Structure prediction request, 158 residues.
Amino acid sequence: MATEQSEAGTTDPIIVRARDDFRWESVPVLAYKETGRHFRNITRQILFDGDPALPVQWRYFEIADGGHSTLERHDHLHVVMIIRGVGQALVGDRVLDVGLHDVVRIPAMTWHQFRATAGAPLGFLCVVHIERDRPILPDDAAIAELRANPRVAEFIRL
Ligand code: MN
Prediction:
């Protein structure tokens, strides 16, 4: 099973100091994904890059006004907490309004996509296991199936 390598390269700090505007000291603001084009206007910061005793990566993503994450699914779980702004999330066949401090659990092999509401960014913390499978993008059959639901069809961005 393919896994994604971590890349923050931090030296296990005891504290990662917050700066203004949802940035953290010594934490680079990274591209959301290195490849692909099925997303728009997102940054990623790795706040915790895993430890043998706690093999998770804890990230902060921020979707700019009008942007969206990749429509994807995978075996690994996400748990997300919104900490900036408001937006919407597709989880399976549900389109959810999400706001400050909501916690969203994204089960295995469930289509998901986040969108920032027009006019403001959407920022969220997301926990994933260090060892995880690569996301799957929808093929034509999956897109047709998703679009069979009008609310989903209106929401998704490819
Ligand atoms: Mn995902």
Notes: The longest strand covers residues 56-68. DSSP finds two helices and eleven strands in the chain. Residues 1-6 have pLDDT under 50 and may be disordered. The pocket of manganese (II) ion is lined by residues 72, 74, 78, 112, 135 (CB under 6 Å).
